[in-house]
Every structure is written in C-alpha cells, then in structure tokens.
Amino acid sequence: MEWIQLPLGPLQTNAYIIYNSDRKCLIIDPGEEAQKIRQFIQKKGLQPQAILLTHAHFDHIGAVDPIRQEYRIPVYLHQAEKKWLSDPSLNGSTFFAGIQPIEVDSADKVFPQSGEISIGDFSFTLLETPGHSPGGVSFYFHKEGFVIVGDTLFEGSIGRTDLPGGKEQELLKSIHNELLTLPEDTYVLPGHGGVTSIAQEMDHNPFINGF
C-alpha cells in the first residue's frame, strides 16, 4: 500500500490518497483544488472507493462534492459533525476574511464507534480524537505503520481549539490516550505541514510534554 500527501488550497491543507496494488484508493480530506486530486488519480489509473473526513472544517471539505460526484463514491464523517458540512458557521468558513462560505452536501455514511473498519479493499482502525473539533477522528493503518490525524497533532504543535466545539483539554487527552499509545515508529500524517512520528512528538513537542 502507498500514500501521497497533496497540500491543497490557500491554507495548504493536506489531502491524502491511499492506494493499493489493485489500483483501488481512498481519498482523505479533499479540502480544495479538486483538479489536482483528479490529475493524480488519472496519472496512477486509480479507482476511488470512498472519501474519508478526519473532521468537517472548511479547509478539509472544499472539494468533497466535485470528487464525490465525479467518482460516485460515498463520504464518511463522524456523527458529531454531520450538520457541519452544510453550515458555514459550524465548518468555520464564515470566520475567515476572503473565504467564501462553504456548503457541502450531507455525508453518505457516518462512522461507527472507534474500532476496526473495512471500506472496500481497505482496513484500518478508527480512533476517535476530538478536541480540535467534536467529531475529530484519526485513521490508523497499523500494518503499514502510519496514522492520518487531521488537525489533532502536528510536527511540534497541536490543533487549534478556538473554533466552534474546540476543547484544549479534550484535545490533549485524545493525543495522549489515542495517539501516543501507538508504536513509537508510527508515522504521523497531519492535516498541515510535514510528516512526523510518534517518537518525534513524544520527545520534542512542547505542547504535549507537560500534559
């Protein structure tokens, strides 16, 4: 299995495409610039199976509808943010100057409780990691050794908690209970910035070392 990180839009939000040897793929957090996503899919000859959202902030959902419509695939989101896709005041797009209010059609599927998930040819562990937002989730591909964390954890930093539903202590609890308990050599694929690892953040992240 392979993955690619695609920084998209004015905030350079990381979308991820996870794909296997059969050319099936999952699309994670298509935040903007749908054409860049299409170009990579076409270049590799991939067959998308689903869109997965780590959370429903505007910079992670802007290309959901064009990608969903083109490939006729379902969108998965946590139940706690089911109303956020169509509500700019919840997804945060009303709070930033120069950002058009973003409204996206409802998710097709809601994630069940945390645990093992299978979607098409892919299996992973769903980790509930709220704090940056109420329905934040992470996708842990244990056999492949990486976890996609959205805006929960960054290289040397953590997600902001000043948007609707954000709670700093809940975020820190999610990081410690769900992410820092993973094997230390697990790669961390964040919603912004570069790839890091659990070990790197345990040793050097000032926001979590004192929790």
UniProtKB/TrEMBL annotation:
A Gene Ontology molecular function term of the record: hydroxyacylglutathione hydrolase activity
Claim: Transmembrane helix is one of the keywords in the record: no
Domain Metallo-beta-lactamase, chain residue ranges per copy: 12-192
Cofactor needs: Zn(2+)
EC number: 3.1.2.6
Pfam families in the record: Lactamase_B
Keywords, ordered alphabetically: Hydrolase, Metal-binding, Zinc
Enzyme class at the top of the EC tree: hydrolase
Domain of life: Bacteria
SUPFAM superfamilies: Metallo-hydrolase/oxidoreductase
Keyword ATP-binding included in the entry's annotation: no
Record InterPro entries: MBL_Glyoxalase_II, Metallo-B-lactamas, RibonucZ/Hydroxyglut_hydro
Protein name according to UniProt: Hydroxyacylglutathione hydrolase
Organism listed in the record: Jeotgalibacillus soli
